Structures are given as C-alpha cells and as structure tokens.
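Z., the sequence and structure:
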Amino acid sequence: MQCGYFDAGACRSCTRMGEPYGAQLARKESATRSAVPVERWEPSAASREEGFRNKAKMVVAGTVDEPTLGILDPRGRGIDLRRCGLHEPGLHDALPVLAEHVRRARLAPYDVAGRRGELKHLLVTTSPDDELMVRWVLRSTESLPRLRKHLPWLVDQLPVSVASANLQPEHKAVLEGPEEVLLTEQATLPMRLDLPGHPVVLQLRPQSFFQTNTQVATELYATARRWVCEVAPARVWDLYSGVGGFALHLAGEGREVVGVEISEEAVLGARRAARLADLDVDFHAGDAVAWAAQTDAQRPDLLVVNPPRRGLGPDLGAWV
C-alpha cells in the first residue's frame, strides 16, 4: 500500500510499511512454522492490502472549529489521518462528517498538555451492511446534552445504528473508561459474516471486541468450523470468547458449546446472537482462569483459546 502520510513522515504507525505484503506474509509463516511443530500446513488466509480495517480509533485534537482526527505528534499536537488507507470505505466517508459534527455540537477536543477539553477519542466501526457504531470518549458528562441535541443531524447524514458516549475522566493513556452511556435505542451492531451453511450474525456492543479485519475473521471462523466438524467433538469450550465468534460458529450438530468472557457487554451480544440464530450455546461472564479452575462441568473434548499462549498468562497456560 502506498501511504502519503507515511511518505510525508506524518505517521509511522505501520512499522512494516514499504515491505511487500508477500514478504510480510512469508516471514510470518516461517516464524509460525518454527514455533508450532505440526505436520500439515494449509495456505495462509491473505488480506487485502488496504481498505480492510473495519474500525477507526481516532485521537481528537486541535480546536472545536478545526478538529483533527488521527494521532498525536511527540509534542501532543494533532495529526489528521481521516484518509488512512487501512480503513474501509465506509469509515473514509464517515470521518469528515463526524468532524463536522464535532464543530456543530461544540465538542471541545481534549488538550493533553493543558489537561482541558472534553472529547478525547472517536471510535467508529462499520459493519458488512455499511451500518455504523459511533462512540465518543469524553472526559465528563458536560457535553452530553449537546451531543444528544445534534445526534439527529448526524443520523440524517450517516447510517449510524448504534451511538454511545464513553466516560474516561482520568488523565492517562487509556483509550476508554468503564462507564458507557447509550444514545440510541439500538444497542448492538449486526456483523453478518455469511459463512455458507451457518448464517450466524454476530452482535457487537460498545466495549466489546471484534476482529478488525472482517474478511479475515470470516475465513478464520470458517476454517475453525471445518476443522472442528472433521473431529466432531461432543463438548467444546471457548475461553476468552468475546462476542462469541468461535463458540457460535462451532455450535450445532448436537455439540455442547460453552463460552467464557470477562466483558459483560460482549457476553450480552453473544447471547443475543445465539438467540437470533437459535443456537444452544452457554455463555458465562467471568474470568476464564477462575471459571476453568473452579467449574464442575465435564472437561471438554476440544478447547479454543484466543489469545494464544503469551496472552493467556502463566496460570491458564499451565492449566491448559
């Protein structure tokens, strides 16, 4: 991908920029094969080189009248990246309109050096059906009335299905806080992946994680389902199940499937997706380590863990 921001020295977030994608993929394949001694390797699922990311995480800086959406430079000044080549087209279309909404609602960008202002981040997700989830990360509730007042204008301009404000009052490098204020009646963004023969629509809520590359996520779940159907386990556990991507796609055919996830918002979305797909999956909201160690349930025939070993931590890694 050719990136004008990278070429101009404005952004260095993509550390492998300039290395051909094929070379990056070959390097990753080699490292993985060295680390995991298995006999059979299938071809890697390659991504599009640009326009693949379904989520934009934009730092808001500048002024009310001239906001920047992007990152901060070493001095804490905003660098506008609203045309980042990683983003799906729907995000490209949305970000300029969201910048105009910042002006209309008079949402003062947070000044890190001065510790003043209200709007810290804009978090925007686009679905396969081109619907949007928009989240404003605010320092306080001060600007909530103006945000609500000007939300109808935004909904007229963009296909916003879910909107919320996240409150992050602390002055530290944390993307979002624990409190979420829903601003729309709809609370979940449908993420339709269109797996043949298994029409699950995942339900993404604010504060829950979804794979940022929808194309690769679809291939990931399809591959996992194919592998699991080959070995036909009776019981499956999905630890760190998130919005239920693995658990829901491995369910069916009389299989007993359990998902465990610490984010209550993600579990609510996973349970909703299970109901809509008429799938019998048991989702638990809690710490995966504690649940696995304490549960009286019969041990599974197959265990799914995502993240991999390093992300699991020593306790769960040892238990596995």
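The mean pLDDT is 94. The first strand starts at residue 55 and ends at 62.

Let me know what you think.
H.
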